[in-house]
Design goal:
With 257 residues, the protein is an alpha/beta fold. Helices cover 47% and strands 14% of the residues. The structure holds nicotinamide-adenine-dinucleotide.
Length: 257
């Protein structure tokens, strides 16, 4: 399977799942545009090393996904966008009545509104070329809920709804839009949740991982960034041309419970 000739933008891709997805798309031959809100030499070096490793064009463009204009500028500055992976995301854990308003606003902006802005900016080019793939990284929390994650869960359910709507608006035009719903994947975002979860549940690290985090993942195994990347590559393939407006769970059985 080859994605050569295609350019992919992956938001929030200087670590974790975004980086894993960027690597798998590059492995499949796509030119990749990495992104985050920082502009460090190591961000650009990461893109350069992916380019060398897979023999594709790879660059890094700084843009803050909490800012709608920067989301749209990312797509414009990339010059071309055949594949858009909306992955940037943050998390915060607190009971709803104590949830800080600025955290609610930031989570909704980065985890949901950014996908609206980047998609709106990318779709005209996809319509023109008659081919496009939008892959939104939602979550098992786009389909189910857990306590203390109100903003994240509201945003991820929103991402699933946005994916369905874009799929209907682009149906039959060579463009698909879907959401991948990972269960727990061990990345910096999950790592950062562990101290909060330990506090909320009054448990040590190993117990919170086994009893709380992987409690709802029947496999009791974290998914890997390569598995999420492989699913994204499949959704970009011609075999997936009629898969649109749906969710694919990569969650070790979480949503089968
Ligand atoms: P991560 O913290 O490793 O990566 C998040 C990425 O988003 C980073 O590259 C970060 O720099 C970027 N980012 C954060 N704020 C940004 C901003 N304002 N502008 C641009 N980029 C920004 O976390 P991850 O676990 O790899 O999460 C990636 C996505 O996968 C998120 O949307 C997350 O909700 C989703 N997800 C993760 C898991 C999991 O278990 N790790 C499960 C389900 C869904």
């Amino acid at each position: 399977m080859t994605l050569s000739g295609k350019t992919a933008i992956i938001t929030g891709s200087n670590s974790g799942i975004g980086l894993g997805v960027a690597r798998e798309l590059a492995r499949a031959g796509a030119a990749v545009v990495l992104n985050s809100f920082t502009d460090r030499p190591e961000d650009h070096a990461m893109a350069e090393s992916i380019g060398k490793e897979f023999g594709v064009k790879a660059r890094y463009i700084k843009a803050d996904m909490s800012n709608g204009e920067e989301c749209r500028a990312l797509v414009a500055n990339a010059g071309r966008c055949d594949i858009l992976v909306n992955n940037a995301g943050i998390q915060f854990v607190a009971p709803v009545e104590e949830f800080p308003v600025e955290k609610w606003n930031a989570i909704l902006a980065i985890n949901l509104s950014s996908a609206f802005h980047t998609s709106a900016a990318a779709l005209p080019g996809m319509r023109k070329s008659g081919w496009g793939r939008i892959v939104n990284i939602a979550s098992a929390h786009g389909l189910t809920a857990s306590p203390f994650k109100s903003a994240y869960i509201a945003a991820k359910h929103g991402v699933v709804g946005l994916s369905k709507t874009i799929a209907l608006e682009t149906a039959g035009k060579g463009i698909t839009c879907n959401a991948i719903c990972p269960g727990y994947v061990l990345t910096p975002l999950v790592e950062a949740q562990i101290p909060d979860q330990m506090k909320v549940h009054n448990m040590d690290r190993e117990t919170v991982i086994r009893e709380v985090m992987l409690d709802r993942q029947p496999s009791r195994q974290f998914a890997t960034v390569e598995e999420i990347g492989g699913t994204a590559v499949f959704l970009c393939s011609e075999a997936a041309a009629q898969i649109t407006g749906t969710t694919i769970s990569v969650d070790g059985g979480w949503t089968a419970l």
